[in-house]
Amino acid sequence: MVCGTTSGAGKSTITAALCRSWARQGLRTAPFKAQNMSNHAAVTADGGEVGRAQAMQARAAGVEVERRMNPVLLKPSSDNVSHVVVLGDEVSVTDARDYGPSTRRLRPVVLEALSSLRHEYDWVVAEGAGGAAEINLLDRDLVNLPLARAAGLAALLVVDIDRGGAFASAHGTIDLLPRSLSGCIGGIVFNSFRGDPSLLVDGVAELERRSKVPVLGVLPYLAEETMLGVEDFLDIRAGLHSRARSAKPVRVAAIRLPRLANPSDLDPFVVEPDVEMRWVTRPDELAAADLIVIPGSRATVADLVWLRRNGLAEALKNCDAPIIGICAGYQMLGQRIHDEIESDSGTVAGLGLLDVETRFEHPKVVCRCSFTVGGLRIEGYQIRFGRIVSRERPWFSPVGDSGDCVIGDRVVDAGLSSRVAARCEGAVSRDGRIRASSVHGLFDADGFRSELLGAVAVSRGRDYRPKTTSYHDALEAHHEHLADWLEAHIDTSALLDLAASANPVGSEPGW
User: Fold this and answer.
1) pLDDT at 408
2) Which of 3, 81, 124, 157 is the most buried (most CB within 10 A)?
């Protein structure tokens, strides 16, 4: 298990690095996160929802993501309310207080998912969540050290040293926990260190003496590495991503909605050398944009209210840059949203930039999909309640009856949310400036992205040359770099010994 002293300590990154490191040693490796709280989701091949981080970790491991890798996903729609997804299917809506008692019923689901993965893989890397010593939540903790104890796993404790107070954080975490849980911690790793690690020697020795837990390594700060597929808001940098080779790169502004979902839709722009990508929250930040993206949201109506309250709605109506809406962003661009499910707000006026209407309906559409545009193929996925009626011309055409999950808006079989009619998808305004789609991941397609950015560059007087390597190759290079980073700075033999100390499958202590 990889747990942390805090949120944002680097658990997801280290889990991905371990998955790639062990996979390239020939070990069949799977990621696992018992309970994830995130609006950043991915879709499995059979139409289930899991945390996006587990999909990225599975990719690092070279295996297909599946429902068991994230058996419980909580998708917050407000500060106190979350939609509960169990083994890929949304089952309920709950608040934080009511959810607590239900965790006992979820314990066997979590342990069975983990045990079944362990049966099939050489190694399973179980990522924790938040801080491992949330002592107010230990009785309901499905994902950290109570799970490690139940499954008989040793745990690695990750500490973000960049924030300061790392020694106190590590020792305090171990000291606060009951011995039955702290005894699972078999190693400590300091993450994001800037400077000379020899300066830590005395402190490490004292921490090891006091805690009786060895420090297995100090990982340097990944200053120059573009982090792809981030899930936690702590990891989404608000500022500029720029490696531009051009003096006039295409400037992309993505609106950082309060309930932002699936920010990885924008990752392909981040790795483009002639693109500057910025997350924005103020109207004045749109003035210099060549392309504006309104991304997904888990609270469409609430985030639409936020756009109006801070002046972004008016700025979007008055700007002259091209605008692309994705999923909730698509819905916001329309005339009206009828929502009795997500916000229970009834009919709400949209931004009025596209002649479309959205009605929220059960069942949720959850599936992978394929479309074509201008002879280029795009592949992505959809996760939505919204059914859109468009009077604009469509953006994408269906691939056809080739066995692909080609999707549209009309549900054919109400019992299967992934079964939908083959129809054109998305909308394009009459002047072509506004475009929108329900498809996540559409910018991953290299040819489509290059044509889009090239057209924007021509219309806005910017310079753009397509990236010479594919986005797939950029992801592969990212995961290889993470594995190199881990192997260079952690005692990997000690880590393997720690992992090998797990109870054999079938002899787990249980809850």
Assistant:
1) 35
2) 157
Number of H helices, E strands in the chain: 14, 26
Q: Which amino acid does the sequence have at 458?
A: V
Q: Which tokens is 7 given? A: 């949120």
Name which of 271, 269, 264 is nearest 232 in CA terms: 264
pTM: 0.90
Which is it for strands 346-349 and 336-339: parallel, antiparallel or unpaired? antiparallel
Which amino acid does the sequence have at 455?
A
Could you give the count of Cα atoms lying within 13 Å of 19 in the half-sphere of its Cβ? Answer: 33
Query: What pLDDT score does 413 carry?
Result: 31
**Is 440 assigned a catalytic role?**
yes
For 56-83, give the DSSP string: HHHHHHTS---GGGSSEEEEESSSSEEE
Residues 6+ apart with CB under 8 A from 39: 75, 76, 259, 260, 261, 262, 296, 297, 298
Residue 493 identity: S
Between the alpha carbon of residue 268 and those of residues 14, 139, 461, the distances in Å are 22, 41, 22
Q: List the catalytic residue out of 327, 367, 369, 405.
A: 327
Is residue 372 classed exposed, middle or buried when 0-12, 13-18 and 19+ CB atoms within 10 A define those classes? middle
Instruction: Look at residues 454, 447, 452, 442 and name the one whose alpha carbon lies nearest to residue 407.
Output: 442
Q: What angle do CA 483, 485, 489 make, to 5 degrees?
A: 120
Which residues, other chains included, contact 246 with Cβ-Cβ below 8 Å and sequence gap of 6+?
273, 274, 462, 463, 464, 465
Q: Which of 40, 83, 241, 440 is catalytic?
A: 440
- How far apart, in whole angstroms, are the C-alpha atoms of residue 9 and residue 17? 14
* Helix or strand (DSSP H, E) at 189: strand 185-193
Token pair for 491: 């005692």
Residue 234's pLDDT is 44
Q: Which residues contact 8 (CB under 8 A, 6 or more apart)?
A: 160, 232, 234, 235
Predicted local distance difference test score (pLDDT) of residue 414: 31
Closest CA to 3 of 33, 42, 41: 33
Q: Which amino acid, residue 68?
A: R
The residue ranges of the chain whose pLDDT is under 70 are 96, 223-227, 229-244, 400-422
Cis peptide upstream of residue 31 (ω within 30 degrees of 0): no
Cα 140 to chain centroid, rounded:
24
List, in sequence order, the alpha helices (H) in 177-241: 179-182, 201-211
Q: Catalytic annotation on 481?
A: no
What pLDDT sits at residue 317?
96
DSSP label at 221? Answer: P
Residue 486: its H or E element? helix 471-489
